[in-house]
Amino acid sequence: MGRTLVYPRVQKNTVHRKDDRATYDLHTIHSIINETPVLLISFNSSDPEDPFPTILPMIGTMGSFAYPSADLNDPLECYLHGYVSSGCMKQARAHPESGLAITIAATKVDGIVLSLTPNSHSYNYRSAVLFGYGSLVEDAEEKLWAMQLVTNSVLPGRWDHTRTPPDKAEMASTTILKVKIVNGSGKIRTGGPGDEKKDTEREDLLQRVWTGVVPMWETAGEPVAGGDGRVEDVPEHVRAFRDDTNKVNEKYAKTAAVEKT
Hints:
Number of helices: 7
Radius of gyration: 21 Å
Structural class: alpha+beta
Helix content: 25-40%
Strand order of the largest sheet: 2-3-4-7-6-5
Distance between the termini: 20 Å
Largest sheet: 6 strands, antiparallel, barrel
């Protein structure tokens, strides 16, 4: 069997409530990050008068420029795509040596868990949190590599089916933030309802209340042509993405509804 790497448990990343659902496995955590279309990025404001942390939705993916063949079980950086003048990039630019302290969060909802009582209702879900330091990618080769990585993370193979490489203006207006991960953790719930004994012993409740799981999954719809492109047939890489995404997401959600891990 292959090795299984985990993030070390420290005070910052240790899950306390429902710790049986916790995971520190790199592959699992990185998979959740990569399968979440929009990541939530948090960092502190540089303005001492601003008491609120900043949180931004961003597109990102895990990867390693130094070791491109590394898989999700390996230590990886998180590459985030943004506009050159965005607040996150400005903040990172102000911390060239230490990097900008960043928290990355991702969540997938896989089902609604309906129990005997509202207090026991829940979601089947997968969530991950990463802690790290972000710095701007200045190396031209790494930046281009990261732009391709992020593009293909949205829809596999898309980079090679477009006008590439980006021109000088596009490269100048786009910034890639590389977050060196310090630590992380994940939390996963699967299975059906978990009611308390005081309710499961009440025959009137058992006869009156429906319990179970409503599976939920992200679905890619039928591609709709638009814009200035004149190609009529939907390309194979787009159809393959749609079919594969729907199949994988549906299977996971339905399995999670009946199998507790």
